[in-house]
Predict the 3D structure of the following.
Amino acid sequence: MILESLTIRPDDLLARSGWSMKPEGACKGDVCVPLPARVVNDGLVDVSMLADRLGMPLVADEAHGVWSLGPETRVTGRALTTAVAPDITLPDLSGRSVRIADLRPQKVVLVAWASW
């Protein structure tokens, strides 16, 4: 998840990561991780504290003022929480739009590349 601030509204956290803030802590599915009360302050979640408790890598790009919050590997023991690709649309080699969901149940390999 790319962030422009180290605080996030709880509803945005839920929509973007699947983690909800509850009285018992940060919860996702059947898993709840207790958090210190100070993780939520003035209605905003402190992302650096949350990342530390959930074992989520947090990487800063200070030159651009953005952070990247990685998956919760400490809690789940996995780098990926699912092997199901989101329903995205990409152009094929002819420029026609192709939805990933339209290719199911075939296996699809998606190769991404960046020049930087």
Q: What stands out?
A: The chain has a mean pLDDT of 87. The first strand starts at residue 2 and ends at 3. The chain has three helices and eleven strands. Residues 10-17 form the longest helix (8 residues).
